[in-house]
Specification:
The complex is a heterotrimer of chains A (346), B (275) and C (297). Chain A is an alpha/beta fold. Chain A is built from 12 helices and 10 strands. In chain A, helix 2 runs antiparallel to helix 10, helix 5 crosses helix 6 and helix 6 crosses helix 12. Chain A is globular and about 65 Å long. Chain B is built from 13 helices and 1 strand. In chain B, helix 1 crosses helix 13 and helix 2 packs across helix 13. Chain B is globular, with a radius of gyration of 23 Å. Chain B has one domain: MetI-like fold. Chain C is globular. The chains are: A alpha/beta (346), B mainly alpha (275), C mainly alpha (297). Chains in contact: A-B, A-C, B-C. The interface between B and C is large, with 111 and 106 residues.
Chain lengths: 346, 275, 297
């Protein structure tokens, strides 16, 4: 009891000090969310989970240009589908960078993005990549290709297709590689079912999946090539395999209709050589072949970071996103059917 | 009672079990977080604290907690007085309902607020946003979510204190001609001050730590609606040592504030209603 | 043994706050206001304002959850609840919460006993330690538990992303509840009865079983109800710790969060409604218990 009595005096003082601090920062905190000073622009970027570092690097370079001076950023990164829905629901955005074209189409349908957003030379795409198979250092399971993923003991982590863009690229790659190698639709579906039977975790986003793999939930991760490279740049130690047959990932970027005009300048910068070089440094494949590709730390072969696999198929070869979504991901599609059958859904 | 050897064995066994349990569940894990925060020295921690996102996150957390506590204190004092000093139909129901926020999952709190206050389909949110007040994805939503989860805390401290002190002094003051306000300021407030302080500090600790409800209503946009707890989650899930240290630093600060608040509360405890 | 008025109110002392008081500060039960008056115009206005604020903040939003849950009709509600993944999440949540509550009943009572009946240096420290889970932000709690039981654990275990992690998280956040409801009751227990029992030949175990435990029973039940409620509501600590693996470590609150992020608000509200119903039942049970015990006062 005496300790309590002893502490009372200082405690009251501490309580008063704390209250005063809170009172003061309360006022300051309010000011922090006040409108910006004249001359400064704040742009809001809403992106999918993995390009945060790339966008931050591009923003730094953008700030060195005349249009980019005095631009500050407020950003949010997360699973592509969820982020897209959040923007529709009121999350403020000037520039969006999603994983799937469909996530921009959702904004077009909601009247937030102009219909001609993909009429430019790159068709709205700002960065490319490929689906790769990530394995533990030294590849203890001896994975060489997609077919090895259905061996016993393989535990796959891939994100959840309901929320993540990465997930959809992964599933399409897993399915289509059967067909690219001469298989039938039925064989591809059979493979995808076996694939799902080996899925140990379905986290929300591509980044969450990487973290789940690094924490040991699974021994195989299906992910973007750029995510694997970036993780290795940051010191994570694992190997990744670019399969012989895989899909070319194309990530869109768009400016919203009533965005700050500087956002257009940013998009132009992103597509310029300077912007694309920053993407390359973080492991993305540039959209234009003219971009010089130097050494990329973290790639399997830093001198030749982006080999072209023998069978690199694209979404247009699969019929475009509308057809793909109807066939695979929408209500009644292949994936919900397989998920229900294998008990792995969300 | 004789302190036999058997008694002593029981006592020591119980003591060790309890201490061991608390050691492995609370003490050691918390100590480890402190250790991990400073594993690379003090400099990375200071650098982490200097980042604008971190500073903003803590400012936002503190200001949201401040307003939530102010709101809950004003309403807390008012509702406590009403519950104890007056009778009215539904008094008991109101008393039971006050406890609801403490039993509700924070995720449900977030969902509930989004359903009513979001700008696109919210019951009230549509009108509010047309009038220029954005609640969801903006600081007001954070304040509301924080106020929700800590609502009962001040009331639950004041009701017993008010009951105990009785109304004799207040009635005496009234009969001597004091107005309601004077009675409140000069008689009631001093009598309840310890219970009030206790409830306020408790409320503050709870408000600073809210995570789930804030995550849903705020959108977690750094430098705009990202609170300290959301910052911890975001940085933990990013690559690299700097981000890891930032996550642990923010977590350490939050834990430190919680422990300080607890020490304050613990030393105030006997004065709430001395035997 | 007739509990004194102090015991009754102490037993009901705000179990929701970590610090149970040793005195007759009862928090839950409203006593019949001795000098209650009916509302004056000013206080009536105050009540109106307070009620309006309470409605805007609590009542209307929670009602919106229930309304949204029923938005698709009974069949949609039922489908949302009985989807295999939701059932798995509910099973895991309730099952682990029950297990944790049982552990808490034993350990909570033991801790309260040591705090009240034992004396040793540093006991005061334990008082603060017990309340840490209550004041600590849940996301930090997850980080805290990860340090000792996750990938880089000094103990050499790695329970991250397993059901053990869910169990540990629940155990952590529910630690204070039973301790704080039992502690004040133990403090108020009159030693004479125990001594009488001892003088009649009862050994300590019998005394504990037949004399002490029954007086603690209402407090333990109240704490257990709160502990259960708190466990099923837990979210923050599981985000980093449990991996949220469907069918494996995914709990109800995580399920709700995923549905919200996927803009499936009706599904989210359906699962949320279950949690709300359970919370309501717990509150009603607590109210009944406190009234039943009060009758003996």
């Amino acid at each position: 009891m005496s300790i309590r009595k002893l502490l009372r005096g200082p405690s009251i003082a501490a309580a008063i000090a704390a209250a005063t601090t809170v009172l003061l920062t309360g006022c300051v905190g309010g000011a922090a969310t006040a409108p910006d000073d004249a001359g400064k622009t704040t742009l809001h970027l809403v992106g999918y989970a993995v390009p945060k570092e790339a966008n931050n690097a591009i923003q730094k370079k953008f700030a060195e240009t005349p249009e980019g001076k005095d631009v500050t950023w407020q950003e949010s990164y997360g699973p592509s589908g969820d982020q897209s829905r959040a923007v529709v629901n009121g999350l403020k955005a000037d520039y969006v960078n999603f994983s799937l074209e469909g996530d921009v189409t959702r904004l077009v349908k909601a009247g937030l993005v102009a219909e001609d957003w993909k009429s430019g030379p790159t068709k709205g795409i700002v960065s490319d990549s490929a689906v790769v198979i990530v394995v533990q250092k030294g590849n203890p399971l001896g994975i060489k290709d997609w077919s090895d993923l259905t061996k016993p003991g393989v535990k796959i982590v891939t994100p959840n297709p309901a929320s993540s863009g990465s997930a959809r690229w992964n599933i399409l790659a897993a399915y289509q590689q059967v067909i690219a190698n001469g298989g039938t639709d039925a064989e591809a579906k059979a493979y995808l079912t076996k694939f799902f039977n080996h899925v140990a975790a379905l986290p929300g986003s591509g980044r969450d999946a990487t973290n789940a793999f690094l924490q040991g939930s699974a021994n195989v991760l299906i992910s973007y090539e750029n995510e694997a490279i970036l993780a290795r740049q940051s010191g994570e130690d694992f190997d990744y395999i670019l399969p012989a047959a895989t899909i070319k990932i194309e990530n869109p970027g768009a400016v919203l209709k009533d965005a700050n005009p500087k956002a257009n300048a940013y998009l132009d910068f992103v597509l310029s050589t300077a912007g694309q070089e920053e993407f390359v440094k973080k492991g993305f494949r540039p959209v234009s072949t003219n971009t010089p590709v130097g050494e990329v730390v973290g790639a399997n072969n830093p001198a030749e970071p982006f080999p072209v696999p023998p069978k690199l198929f694209t979404i247009s070869e699969l019929g475009g996103w509308d057809a793909v979504n109807a066939k695979f991901f929408d209500e009644g599609g292949l994936v919900p059917e397989i998920q229900k059958a294998t008990g792995r859904s969300q | 009672m004789h302190d036999t050897a058997a008694h002593r064995v029981t006592r020591w066994t119980l003591r060790l079990i309890v201490i061991g349990y608390l050691l492995f569940l609370v003490i050691w894990p918390v100590a480890l977080v402190a250790a991990k925060t400073f594993a690379n020295g003090l400099a990375p921690v200071i650098n982490a604290l200097r980042q604008p996102e971190v500073i903003f996150a803590f400012q936002l957390t503190l200001s949201a907690a401040f307003w939530a506590v102010v709101i809950n204190t004003i309403f807390g004092v008012g509702i406590s007085l009403l519950l104890v000093r007056y009778t009215f139909p539904g008094r008991r129901a109101l008393n039971a309902m006050i406890d609801v926020p403490l039993s509700v999952s924070p995720v449900v709190v977030g969902l509930a607020l989004v359903l009513v206050y979001n700008g696109r389909t919210g019951w009230l949110g549509q009108t509010l946003e047309q009038g220029g007040l954005q609640v969801i994805y903006a600081p007001p939503g954070i304040i509301m979510a924080t106020a929700f989860v800590s609502l009962p805390l001040v009331i639950r401290e004041l009701v017993p204190v008010l009951t105990e002190i009785g109304t004799e002094q207040e009635q005496a003051a009234r009969s001597l001609g004091a107005s309601g306000l004077q009675t409140f300021a000069r008689i009631t407030l001093p009598a309840i001050k310890w219970g009030l302080l206790y409830g306020v500090v408790l409320s503050l600790a709870r408000s600073l730590g809210e995570f789930g409800a804030v995550k849903i209503v705020s959108g977690g946009v750094a430098m705009r609606t990202q609170t300290a707890t959301l910052l911890v989650e975001e940085r933990y899930q990013q690559f690299g040592l700097v981000n890891s240290i930032t996550a642990y630093t923010a977590a350490f600060i939050l834990a430190l504030i919680a422990v300080i608040a607890l020490i304050i509360i613990t030393s105030l405890r006997p004065s709430k209603g001395a035997p | 043994m007739t509990p004194s008025a102090g015991t009754v109110e102490a037993e009901q002392s705000a179990p929701t706050t970590p610090a149970g008081t040793a005195t007759n500060a009862g928090g839950r039960r409203l006593p019949r206001a001795k000098s209650a008056t009916s509302l004056t115009p000013i206080s009536g206005l105050g009540l109106g304002i307070a009620l309006m604020w309470f409605s805007l903040l609590v009542f209307i939003p929670l009602t919106a959850v229930l309304v949204q849950a029923s938005a698709g009709g009974w069949s949609a509600y039922w489908d949302a609840l009985t989807s295999p993944q939701t059932l798995a999440a509910l099973r895991l949540t309730v099952g682990t919460a029950v297990l944790v509550t049982v552990v808490n009943v034993v350990m909570g009572t033991a801790i309260a006993w040591v705090l009240v009946r034992d004396q040793f240096r540093g006991k005061q420290l334990l008082e603060v330690v017990i309340d840490i889970p209550f004041a600590l932000p849940t996301i930090v709690a997850g980080l805290v538990l990860l340090s000792l039981y996750g990938p880089s654990s000094p103990l050499g275990v790695n329970w991250a992303n397993t059901r053990v992690a869910v169990f540990l998280a629940f155990l952590f956040v529910t630690l204070p509840f039973i301790v704080r409801t039992v502690q004040p009751v133990l403090l108020e227990l009159e030693h004479e009865v125990e001594e009488a029992a001892a003088s009649l030949g009862a050994n300590r175990l019998t005394t504990f079983r037949l004399v002490i435990l029954p007086s603690l029973a209402p407090a333990i039940t109240a704490g257990a109800a709160l502990s259960f409620c708190r466990a099923i509501s837990e979210y923050g600590s599981l985000v980093l710790l449990s991996g949220n693996l469907p069918y494996s470590t995914e709990v109800a609150s995580v399920r709700i969060m995923s549905s919200i992020e996927g803009d499936k608000l009706t599904e989210a509200a359906a699962v949320a409604s279950i949690l709300l119903v359970v919370a309501l039942i717990v509150i009603v049970v607590l109210d009944l218990i406190s009234r039943r015990v009060a009758r003996y006062a």
